[in-house]
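Hi Y.,

Following your request, here is the sequence exactly as I used it, all 129 residues.
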Amino acid sequence: MRALGAGAVYFALVFGAGFVLGALRVLFVAPRLGARAAELIEAPLMLAVTFLAARWTVWRLAVPPAWAARLYMGGIALALLLALEFTLVLGLRGLSLREYFAALDPVSGTVYYALLVVFALMPLFVERR
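Below is the corresponding structure, written out as C-alpha cells. Let me know if you'd prefer a different format.
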C-alpha cells in the first residue's frame, strides 16, 4: 500500500513540475526557437525533476528497496500520467488519440516517450537516504 501512495505522490510532483515547465515552454521558448527545440530543451529539466521527485518520494514515504515495490510505484505514477494525458489533455485540445500520435514530432516525441519509460523505472534506481 505504501508504494500505491508513493506512486500518486511521485506522479503529482512530476506532473506539477511538467505543467509549469510546459506552460513556460509554450509561452516563451517555443515562439522563439520552435516547438521541437523547446521540447528538447525541456527534456533534461524533466529528467532532473523525475530523479529528484523519485528520490524524495522514496525517502519521504519510506518505500522499501524491493524491486517490486519500486516498480509498482513507478507503474502507478505512469498509469496516472497517461490516464490524465489521454483524457484531460486530449479533451482540452480536442484531439483524438490517433490525431495526437500523428501530430507528434518524430524527434521530440521519441524523447518524450523515452522519458516516460525513465519516469516509470526511476524509482528502481534511486537510493533511500
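The radius of gyration is 15 Å.

Thanks again,
Q.
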